[in-house]
Amino acid sequence: MTDIYYMEDDESISGTVKEFLERQGYRVSIFSTVCAAKKALEGGCPALVLVDWNMPDGNGRELCKWIRGQFRDLPVIFLTVRDDSRDIVSGFECGADDYVVKPFELEVLLSRVRALLRRCGDVSGNYLSCGLISLERESRSVRLGREEISLSPSEYQLLLHLLENKGRIVTREALLERVWDSNGNFVNDNTLTVTMKRLREKLRRPACLKTVRSIGYRMEEPKKLEERVV
Fold first, then answer.
1. Residues of the chain predicted below pLDDT 70
2. 38 contacts 62 by C-beta, under 8 angstroms
3. Whole-model pTM?
4. Positive or negative, the Cα torsion across 7, 46, 67, 228?
């Protein structure tokens, strides 16, 4: 199912949009503050984001700039009452892909969402994250917060496989096979131990990377994200 994140503090509007889009087959999560929106995005990337301009703890323009810094190709649509031409231009300049002025027809919003997803595709699979760690497949870049981390090919593949299986235990045997044996390079168990040690050190011993004694490893979010569902 295609995930949409909607940043909106007006429950009557967000509830109506959520109900309508979910009838069309989308899964919509509502976040009423900039803080909650950022926490949600740090935990995973949706297919598309809807952003209101005025938020209780900030504004959509700054949130859009932050989103574009984290996810360069994540589709963003502004939904706002601000219809001044300078605001519209400002919205596009900060990284939005489309701009819809309230009040709007739900069918029009749906057509904009569909058009943008046709053009951009579902980019959510390009981004993986856990805690402060984020990985972009296309560029093969890894970040710890805003800091880019340089990893060796084996360290990158190890992190990628763990993130792809976030929330599940990955055995040592599976990691050895995926990261090394798949390339025809037989290695012993100590190679995994050493590579994992180096990866942990580069990522500053993240709390989200757990060791399951005598079995393997698991990536796990430090705490459950708070989401207000309307």
1. 182-187, 223-230
2. no
3. 0.78
4. positive
